[in-house]
Each structure stands twice: as structure tokens, then as C-alpha cells.
Amino acid sequence: MKNTQSKEIIAKFSGSLDQFDLSVDVTLPARGVTALFGRSGCGKTTVLRCLAGLSRVDRGYLSVKGKVWQDGNYFLPTPKRPVGFVFQEASLFPHLSVDENLTFGQRRAGDRANIISRDDLVELLGLGALMNRSTHHLSGGERQRVAIGRALLSGPELLLMDEPLAALDRLSKNEIIPYLDRLFKTLDIPMIFVSHDTEEVERLADHMVIMDRGKIVSNGLLSDVLSDPALFIAEGPKTSSVIEVEVVSFSEVDKITEVRVEGGRLQIPGQLSDVGSKQRISIAANDVSLAKEQPSETTILNVLPARILDIHLLDGARCNLLLSIGHQNEDGARFLARITQRSLRKFDFAIGHNIYAQVKSVSMVGAKI
Ligand SMILES: Nc1ncnc2c1ncn2[C@@H]1O[C@H](COP(=O)(O)OP(=O)(O)OP(=O)(O)O)[C@@H](O)[C@H]1O
Q: Signal sequence span per UniProt (predicted)?
């Protein structure tokens, strides 16, 4: 296997597969979770299959953390790729217990290095009480926890997950996400998961890639991609932006948490977590309204000085505005506001204007280390 200087993942796949045209050229981080997002049929699973070596296009190149897995002359076959693959439905061995399923994964590792000890994995995934159980009677969420554990014990250098939570209902998703969140933060390998669900992406991903019709249309930090006003995902009714914050204080009197964001501060009802901790919050574009002057009397807790960085007209009556917190420069945390085009005209809002953003509600997404 050849080596290259790049320590990231470089993936270039182009060609036709069963009449589907794929044209992907992307560089992904070597650590953390990347969400692969896009409409049904845009090619997400096909990209995962190419990464795993299960599909082969005419022109393919893949290097993972400095090792070339394929290029014009060389193709590392699937069984030799150090990849953990998790599918939508956990394909556990029904005749084996949870413990034995994990052992099977461990055997696959051969002489590949452990990326996590079995004990730590069992602890982080909360599998201790399930070890002697047959896989027949596990819940969907439990099955997926075992499947992810088994994949990670096989010593992968890349973890690929194809809609691992899609078969679960909302309650089961809410149950499994904290386990995955804790686990993923401890792993030093790149993890790529396909998802349709922005809530799960906001919670688990650090990086986001958006596909459309076999091509990559956006690739970057989760917060940057989610706040791109021109992307099709910013057009939906539930569009929201994700911002990293630090908890600054909690008022026992009125139970309000104050957090610091780039360029300002926000107040959030309830006790979020310990002072000093890093968190991730989400602001729905529909919950943001704009004012030209600072409103003198309002019940809204968060009225933020902000600058308009971009305006994107949507079909119909509405538009998305990209805002940056603060009036002094454009380095503040960025988020989207959704207003009507009538209001845009009435107040004559334009790129570069300083305005006041009234944020009606902020929701906690999860803890970030
Ligand atoms: N085995 C196959 N034979 C023929 N065409 C296929 C096959 N698998 C996928 N395709 C086609 O390739 C295209 C991309 O499919 P792919 O499964 O990669 O999309 P996707 O983004 O993962 O979709 P979804 O979100 O619905 O799972 C689609 O047009 C699909 O119909």
C-alpha cells in the first residue's frame, strides 16, 4: 500500500454505476463525525459503498490518514480494508449472545490495533447488563449499540454507518444518541454516517457533507453548512442553525443560564449544565425576527446586535438572512433568520446592515467536550 502526505481522508469517485452518475471529490477530517446528508437517491449509500470498496467506479482515488486504499492502479479489496460498517438494521448473529457477537468483531481485528478496549466500549455503550442476553429480545436501539460495538472491536481505521438510527422511533433515538455522543468523542478515527434527520445530525456530527444528484454541494463544519442560507436544507420549515457556546452563569433566582457565544451572550431558561462547560445550541430560523432599532420594551430575552451577511430569497413569500452576532465585525457566531420578503422590503434590509435580532427560543442540542 502506498503512502501519501495527507493525514485526512481524500475521496474521489467518478463514473457511472448502474446508470447513476457519481462525481465526488471531497476531503474529510481524519477525526470526528461527518454526516453525509441529502435527499433520497442522491448517492449517499453509493459513496459509503465506494469508501468500503463494495462498489468500484471507473475513476477512483481514496486515501485514509496517509494510506492510499485505491488509485488508478491499485485497489485494496473490501475484506482487507480496515473499515467498520454499520447498517440501518443491525445484522447481528442470532445464534450468538451479545458477548459472543462482540467477540466475533474482535476476532476480525486480527493483528490490527485496538482503537478502544473492550471494557471501555462495553461501558460507553452501556452493554454491561446485556452481555449474556440473546440478541433475539433486544430492542432496536440495543441491537444498534451492539452492532456499533462489534464494528469498533474489529480495529477499523474508518467507521461507516448507513442510516444507523433510521429504523428507530424518536424515543429509541433519544435513548441511543447520548451513548453514541459519548463514545464518538473518545474515538480517534474518522466516522462517517448517512442520515436524513437534521436533529440527529445536529446532535452527533462535527462536520457535514451535503449531496445532490451524485455530487457534493457543500462540505464543511456543521455550523457553517447548516447556516448556509442558499442550500436546499435551509429552505425547509424546520431550518435551524447550530452554535457552540460556553456556559457562563446560572441564576438561582429566575433559573436562567447565560452562555457566551462568539460576539455576544444568550440567556436560556433552565439549568443547562455546569458553568464552564461547552455546549451546542440550536436556533430555529423561524424563531428569529429582526428590528432596525433596539426594541426598548420586549418580553424576548435575547435581543442581539447583529450584522446581515447574506440574503437568500426563497420561493414564494419568504427569505433567509444569514446573521453574525455583533455590530463591530463579521466574526460573530452565525445563524439564520427567516422573515417575509414583504418585511425585507418594508425595512429595506440589505447585506452589511447592522440590525437587532430577536431570538424567541433557543434549544440545547447536547454537550460538547
Ligand atoms: N443496486 C442498484 N441497482 C441499480 N441502481 C441502484 C442500486 N442501488 C442504488 N441505485 C440507484 O443509485 C442512485 C443512488 O442511490 P443511493 O442508495 O446511493 O442513494 P441514497 O442517497 O443513499 O438514497 P436513500 O437516502 O434513499 O437511501 C439512485 O438513483 C438509486 O436508484
A: none
Distance 45 CA to ligand 1 centre (A): 7
C-alpha distances out from residue 66 to 5, 206, 209, 225, 365, Å = 6, 21, 21, 26, 34
CA-based nearest residue to 27, from 207, 227, 230, 152 = 207
Can you tell me the distance from the alpha carbon of 358 to that of 363, in angstroms, rounded to the nearest whole number? 15
CA distances to 158, 193, 197, 234, 325 from 84, in Å: 6, 11, 22, 32, 40
**Share above pLDDT 70 across residues of the chain, in percent, rounded to a whole number:** 99
Residue nearest to atom 7 of ligand 1 (CA): 18
Q: Are 260 and 245 in contact (CB under 8 A)?
A: yes
Mutate to test the pocket of ligand 1, among 46, 88, 89 (most ligand atoms within 8 A of CB): 46
- Give the model confidence (pLDDT) of 251-268 as tens digits: 999 999 999 999 999 999
CATH code assigned to 240-368: 2.40.50.100
ipTM of the modeled complex: 0.93
For ligand 1, atom 23, which residue shows the shortest CA distance?
41
Q: Where are the domains of the chain?
A: 9-226, 240-368
Task: For domain 9-226, give the CATH number.
Answer: 3.40.50.300
Q: Does ligand 1 lie within 6 Å of residue 297's CB atom?
A: no
Q: What is the pLDDT of residue 367?
A: 52
* Mean pLDDT, rounded, for 1-15: 88
CA-194 nearest atom, ligand 1: 22
pLDDT in tens, 329-361: 899 999 999 999 999 999 999 999 999 999 999
Q: Which atom of ligand 1 is nearest to the CA of 214?
A: 14
